[in-house]
C-alpha cells in the first residue's frame, strides 16, 4: 500500500469534538482573570514586545476581551488583519526551520538599598510565583493537538507540513500554558507590586534560554546569542541593583522552580545557592546552580546535575541570555515546542513539586505509551498505558480510569476532556504522513544548533 493509502485520515467529526473542548477554554479564561488582582481591573494582559510598561510606547496587548480571544482560537480568517505570517527573509530565512529571534532594548535596574529590602522583595515575588505554579498546570499537549488539528484540516491547501508551520501563528491557549504563557501570567501578576517598587514594570522582562550547550565559551562571545540557536525555553528576569551591586532575579515557572533565583554579577551575597529541581520520578534528583558567565555577563550559566540511583551523575549547562528582552517567545519558543518530540502535562504544588500529570514521546501510536502519575496514599504512583487504549470506546479498565480521573482533577480538567485529548493525540500519531513530516521538521530544527 502506498503512502497515501497507508496514511490514517482523521475524521472531521472527531476533530469537531476536539474543537468543542478547546472552545471550552474560554470558560477557564474567566478563572485566570482572578489572578490579575483588583489593580488590573479584571483584565489579563500579555507583554509581548520591547516597549516599557510605564512609557508612552507601551508593549502591552490586551487579549482579555472575549471577542478577541474567541477569534484567535476559532478563526483562521485574517483578511481584516495584518498578516503576521508574511515573513521576510531577514526574519525567517527560507533555509532555516525557525524564525530568527528578536531582542528588545536593555532594561533599567530596580534599586534595592539593603539586603533586607532585597529579601523582602524576594518574599513578595515568591508569593506570586508560587500562586502561578499551584494554580496553572504546565501543558505542552494542548498546543500540539491544536497544531495537528489545524494542519489536518488544512491539508489540501498545505500538503507540506513545513509550509503550514511557516504560516501557522501559535496561539497562547488560556489554561493550557507552556513556559511562554506561564511567564506572561507571572509578569502580569507581578505588575501589582509596582506601587511598592516603582520601576519594577520597566525592570522586568522575558529572557531566552538555550538548553544543553556544549560550546559554552564560544556561544557566549557576543552581546546576543549566535544565530545557531533554538531558544526553546523562556524565563522571567528582573534586573536589580542590591547595595549598589548589579544582579538579576530569575523566575522560572516553566521548569517548576518555586524560588526566585538571585544571580549577582560578582557572585557574592545575596547570590542564590543550589536549587533542587522538580521531577516526576523520586529516584531522579536534579540540582540547579546559576552564575553569571565570567567573561560575558550578558549570559547566566544554568548548570544542571542529574543523579539517578543506578547511574553516575550527568551534567550539562544551559545558557540564559539576560542582557536584553526576548521578543520572540511565541514566534520561536512556542513554535519550536510544537515539533518537540516529548509532551507533558503536569500540575505543581506552590513549591514546584509535581503532584500529578502525564507524559509521552511523539512516535507511532502502536509503539507509544502514555505515563500517568498521581499520588496514592501519599506516594507517587506511575502507570504506563498504551495510547491506543484511548481509541477504544468499549474498553475501560478501573485502574486506568482512576489514574485518568486523578490527573484530570489535578490539572483542572474533566476525565472526558483528558480522554478526548489523548484520543486526539492517538489519532495524530496514527497519521503516518503527519508523523513522518513532524519528525523531519524536528530534525531540521535540531540541526540549527547541532554545533552549539
Describe the structure.
With 452 residues, the chain is α+β, with helices and mostly antiparallel strands. 33% of the residues lie in helices and 23% in strands. It is built from 14 helices and 16 strands. The protein has helices at 3-6, 12-23, 25-33, 66-74, 115-135, 142-153, 161-167, 179-190, 200-203, 216-219, 329-339, 398-410, 415-430, 432-448; strands spanning 45-47, 60-62, 110-112, 138-139, 204-210, 233-242, 245-251, 261-264, 275-277, 284-292, 299-308, 311-321, 342-348, 354-361, 369-376, 379-386. The strands form three sheets. Strands 3, 5, 6, 7, 8, 9, 10, 11 and 12 form a nine-stranded mixed beta sheet that branches. The longest helix is centred in the first third of the chain and has 21 residues, at 115-135.
Query: Helix/strand-derived class?
Result: alpha+beta
The value of Rg in angstroms is 22 Å
Question: What is the count of distinct domains?
Answer: 1
Low-pLDDT runs of 5+ residues are 1-11, 21-83
Instruction: Give the overall silhouette.
Output: globular
**Percent of sequence in beta strands:** 15-25%
Question: What is the helix fraction of residues, given as a range?
Answer: 25-40%
For the residues shown, what is the average pLDDT?
A: 85
Count of beta strands: 16
How many helix segments?
Answer: 14
Outline the biggest β-sheet: 9 strands, mixed
State the order of secondary-structure elements, H for helix, E for strand. Answer: HHHEEHEHEHHHHEHEEEEEEEHEEEEHHH
Ends apart, CA distance between termini: 41 Å
